[in-house]
Amino acid sequence: MMILGLTGSIGMGKSTVAAMFAGNGVPVFDADAEVHRLQGPGGDLVHAIEAVFPGTTGPEGVDRAKLSKAVLGNAEKLAALEELVHPAVGLSRRAFLEEHANAPMVVFDIPLLYEKTGEAGLDGVIVVSAPTDVQRERVLARPGMSEEKFAHILKLQLPDSEKRERADFVIDTGVPLAETERQVDALVTCLRAHDVQYCKQCAR
Asked: Hey, which of 112, 152, 174, 175 would disulfide with 130, CB 3.0 to 4.6 Å?
């Protein structure tokens, strides 16, 4: 099995690209979606998060706005949250691999791959990228987003230029959607026929 990491900074279109891989029949593990499930109603992490961050949960599970406010700008509290979340997501990821053991290729959609989880266990990394002005427009159009919050998020993320430099493959989403989809289709076709190193050379 070929295991690929998919990452990209906020607003770069990673979710759209992940859906394109899934549309090509590639199983995709969405780390963010799994965190939502674990923190949702009846989720495995709800009681543990309430114990560490009192008042941040309710009948619908974790109140993400309250939890975000509780950890924003506090490295110690953020680390405490990550100590709860990362092991739980790791267990879910292992279950995903067992479920798709016969798949020739899978994708791990990991927002903070370079910043937190690293590249260990991956055969290659795909970075989703777009011009800075496009990213900014997308992010600031999100409900509840502000200039201050966007700036804080960017500080926590590796610059896009560094991600592009470290990536095995870069998918451009600053182009028409059909062109982004063509890039994904071509990469999946190559990887199914060859390996990461061969396809990396072809992409240059």
From this structure: 174
